[in-house]
Amino acid sequence: MHGAGNDYVYVDCFDQTVPSNLPELARRISHRRFGVGADGLILVRPSEQADAWMHMFNADGSESEMCGNGIRCVAKLVQDRGYAKASPLTIESGGQVYTIQTQCDDDGKVCQVTVDMGKPILQPERIPTLIPGDPHVVDVQVEIDGRHFPVTCVSMGNPHCVVFVDHADDEWVLKIGPQLENDPRFPKRVNVEFVEVLSPTEVRQRTWERGSGETWACGTGASAVCVAGVLTGRTERTILNHLLGGDLTLRWDEDSDHVFMTGGAAEVFRGTW
Question: Which residues does the UniProt site feature Could be important to modulate the pK values of the two catalytic cysteine residues point to (predicted)?
């Protein structure tokens, strides 16, 4: 399944046992030459708190707290297979429960999903980052490989470092991205978004994901970009975000302080490993 090209292998654990040695399975199954090929592995498991539990692993086998594109696909799987009633749904991930609204096509299958991503976390120690903020890390200058540029740090259940650039080219994404991901100022590593502002309501994003490298989309990253755009005065509270694999609509609601993400979810194929 994929959301805006951010593809994962999903294991339905409602009707089968949970596989063993999940980090190793994630590494093997995600390999694009010797496995199925994916940005990671997501287990869809029963939950005592919600309609389902999303248990996620990156392509390198590391566990992750949240995936915005992944949770849209989990909602589609859970509703399409009848494990939960129609919208709204609740999905547990990373110790939080997310509320989700779905829209269906003419065949009754979920095609569009809106996720309440919750409140952004801005306190540096909770993101976490060691970059000093006053009180938050907003347009703070950092230096990587002799290059100086401003960053804005946000957590949407997982850590993000947003970099606004004139052109999100390979020099930024493929060179600076992995260096920022593994920079010691991010104790749990970090996801990095390189963003071109096209207008106050429209941006273009490329993502270097922690544990997976460049991906075609990142929903939590797009949510962090929405927040960072407002905090730095570059964008309005509702934006259209163009990613390599498709578009997402983001809204940072002023009253609730919650970020809402809307995008598609698609099943590509089923198989046996």
Answer: 160, 209
pLDDT above 90 (res 86): no
- Six-digit token string for 9: 């292998």
Whether the model pTM is above 0.90:
yes
Q: Which of 67, 73, 153, 161 is catalytic?
A: 67
Does the annotation flag 191 for ligand binding? Answer: yes
The CATH number that domain 124-257 falls under is 3.10.310.10
Cα distance between residue 242 and residue 172, in whole Å: 17
Kindly report, as residue ranges, where domains of CATH 3.10.310.10 are found in the chain: 2-118, 124-257
Q: Is 69 annotated as a binding residue?
A: yes
Provide mean pLDDT across the span 122-134: 97
153 is catalytic: no
Bridge partner residues of 40 (DSSP):
58
- Residue 218 annotated in active site: yes
| Catalytic entry in 153, 161, 218, 226 | 218
Q: Which two tokens stand for residue 122?
A: 């801005």
Establish whether the linkage from the previous residue to 23 is cis, with ω within 30° of 0: no
CA distance 186 to 181: 8
Mean pLDDT of the chain: 97
In tens, the pLDDT along 178-215 reads 999 999 999 999 999 999 999 999 999 999 999 999 99
Is 108 among the annotated ligand-binding positions? no
- 140-144 and 147-155 beta bridge pairing: antiparallel
Q: Is 271 annotated as a binding residue?
A: no
Q: How far apart are CA 241 and CA 223, in angstroms?
A: 9
